[in-house]
Amino acid sequence: MMPKVGRGDRMRGLMTYLAGPGRANEHTEPHLVAGDAAMLAWYDDNELSMASAAAVADYLEEPHRVLGTQVAGGHVWHCSLSLAASEGQLSNEKWRQIAEDFTAAMGFDDHDGTKAPVRWVAVRHGLSKNGNDHVHLAVNLVREDGTKASTHNDYVRAQHVAAELEVKHGLVITEGRAQGRGSRGYHQAEVEAQARSRAKAKHQREHGGSARAPRWEHLDAADRARLVQAQKPVEQPRLTLARTVRECAVASRDEAEFVRRLRRANLIVKGRLAEGRADVVTGYIVAQRPVHGERPIWYAGGSLGRDLTLPRLRQEWPDTPQNANAAVAEWTAGRRGRRPVAPGREAREGDPKVWRQHAEQLAALNERLRAVPLEDTDTWARVARQTSGAFAAWSRRLERTPGPLAEASRALSLSAQTRQGERPGSHLDLAPLGENAMILLAVTRSGGKAAQVAMFKQLANLTKSVHSAAEASGQAQQAARLASLYRTQLTGVHERLVAEYRGSRPAPSNAPEAAPAPVLAPELAAIVARADAAQPRGPQVPRSPLPVPIEPRRVQPTTPAREGPER
């Protein structure tokens, strides 16, 4: 179960959206499944109309409106609790239990009568566009006595509470959170923003000089929607950008080369300088280079992937004063739009003859990995990141649209994105993987089908090794994902490469059959058994279903002190 927390100051706007049709008409039969006693007594589980949604909002808003308590960041706390599509749908009663437990664990109840409660509701409507069952919690952070509910560290606390409720209510365990791993999420608004920017820029380029064509602002809403839809990318922009950044990082021997490779991949980059310094770069942002008229959409390295922050990437590069100065020079050139300061091997054409050599180096690396304990999560995270970068490089060379190689890069990157940085002590030399990515990016002509088959086989073997590590560390979902990837995607690519190498000739009838692809892991194991019910929280005092009247505070006038005998 994934929580997503937001803040604002418009309760009516939130309730109107929850009771409305949604951005893609996905909201159906909106109704309340949980809330305080007065609210449920009024509305029960009847379908919410726009008028009733406004009435609910006014009720929730009353403590803030009457008492005037101001909350920094907004007094409206909104959180959606979403299940994976594979979990199906829960009953209203089950969602009620989850919402009440979540609200209490976040500290929004009355804490056994020691605090005034907040006013809140949980709204359920149709499945999301991706088929996820979910509920929305709308909470007024101003309590009924005018005090404020604490939101300290609420994003992190929501994750911890969700993990506890997964066990308590028998939901699928989100293992990325349990294992200290996880990829960055994204919002559909990112796709909409990029598509809208491209559609507007294209319309202006094509019709900007025509007096007859209407301006973008004057187009009918349906026409604008049609133009935006035509510009929506095949893949979410953040995923495409993360794959490019990862391949450039893996193929680079130092930070300066990394900056130059980003720019050669048609990206624009900016280094984030330390405060008060012009020679220390602490982070970076990157964006696809826009066409004329578009605005770039910037992403920080950490927002693309936990393994793509600059401190994490620097762990793979030599740390010397010369390399640091060269990197600052390249970051500065990138920020100012100047040519690279010192072009290196990324600008040279590779030799196709080295394909076989690097395939042999990968085979030797696979042998060395046999000695690495499967419990060494830091080393296996590095292996996953480097292998992901190699697949990303191959994808950019061969796939016009994201295909099996891009999916392999994406799946492996999930094993690389640990929440904590790798601890020092893992000194396994992974240079062959970086050289592999460099060759895949630099060689424009084929290095020979046989060499390609050999190199791909070794990358597939590395995927198997990462799978074994995921299985050993209890990452059942990730292990199943990598197993499915190997059986369905990588095996198919390998067969096509072999067929091309053999000239697509059918094998003779007496040829031995190819050994079936090994099954790496069973399908996802049974869901973790339901945990014992939580400890009772003490005697509960039933609350009246009638709403508590909220009265304005009465401020007693103060009179100035008087001088003399009267005082």
UniProtKB/TrEMBL annotation:
It holds the Pfam family Relaxase. Residues 70-171 form the MobA/VirD2-like nuclease domain. It comes from the Bacteria. Residues 179-212, 333-353, 531-567 are annotated as: Disordered. InterPro entries: Endonuclease_MobA/VirD2 (IPR005094). This is Relaxase/Mobilisation nuclease domain-containing protein. The lineage of its organism: Bacteria, Bacillati, Actinomycetota, Actinomycetes, Micrococcales.
